[in-house]
Write a structure and sequence with these properties.
This protein is 35% helix and 31% strand. It is of the alpha/beta class and 220 residues long. It has a single domain, classed as 3-Layer(aba) Sandwich (Rossmann fold), CATH 3.40.50.150. The strands form two sheets. The chain has a seven-stranded mixed β-sheet with strand order 3-2-1-4-5-9-8, with helices on both faces. A two-stranded antiparallel ribbon has the order 6-7. Helix 1 runs parallel beside helix 4. The protein is globular.
């Protein structure tokens, strides 16, 4: 596990219970997220898909409700325990997106909803390569991430000292969609669609967001 992932795990271990209370129903107020997840599930087709950085399991549960076969993966053992308690019919595993336990080509797709925002550039490159390993050729990947907000621009780094009223030491990267696209292309993915949107402050943190839907195309 990398140093950045160790810090991320420690932070999310600390806030797991409160995170689940506040965010486990977040999709109720996010119609575009639901629509993109539905498109992802349809494009992935029949077969296992990974929800990487699954947190308390709500995205995996939503995908299961669409008929997908999700496997939830997260660094934080407390998050995985919450997910298992909430959704006992879904397979949830503790794991790192930099070194997944899945076999090569095991997944028909993978969803990473705000999962890459704590990875430094070198680790993001490793994560993209690992995605290319575990997602079969032709498989689909959906990534969501924060681009900017009133204080931070794309490319900025926010050193977080508090999250959900808990003290943490956590690095948050605001990502340029073109940079994410370039990294994915270099790992063997081709863009299917991209959506940039403004936030809805009534239901979420007020950051501008981007979504990239890409397809695994090359053997690496």
């Amino acid at each position: 596990m990398s140093t950045s992932e160790d810090a991320t795990r420690t932070a999310y271990d600390a806030v797991a219970d409160e995170y689940a209370k506040q965010l486990a129903d977040e999709l109720d107020g996010k119609p575009l997220d639901r629509a993109l997840l539905a498109a992802f599930a349809e494009l992935a087709g029949t077969g296992p898909v990974a929800d990487i950085g699954c947190g308390p399991g709500h995205v995996a549960a939503y995908l299961a409700g669409l008929g997908a076969e999700p496997v939830g993966i997260d660094l934080s053992p407390p998050m995985i325990e919450i997910a298992r308690q909430r959704y006992p019919g879904i397979d949830f595993q503790v794991g790192s997106m930099l070194e997944l336990s899945a076999a090569t080509g095991e997944f028909h797709g993978a969803a990473l909803m705000y999962s890459i925002i704590h990875l430094p550039p070198a680790d993001r490159t490793l994560a993209y390569r690992e995605l290319a390993r575990v997602v079969r050729p032709g498989g689909i990947v959906l990534l969501a991430f924060h681009v900017s907000d009133a204080e931070y621009a794309a490319g900025d780094v926010h050193q977080m000292r508090e999250m959900l009223d808990q003290p943490v030491e956590l690095t948050h990267y605001y990502l340029d969609p073109d940079d994410v696209h370039a990294g994915l292309t270099g790992a063997g993915f081709a863009e299917v669609a991209r959506l940039d949107r403004e936030p809805d402050p009534a239901v979420e943190y007020p950051s501008r967001r981007s979504y990239l839907l890409v397809r695994r195309t090359l053997d690496t």
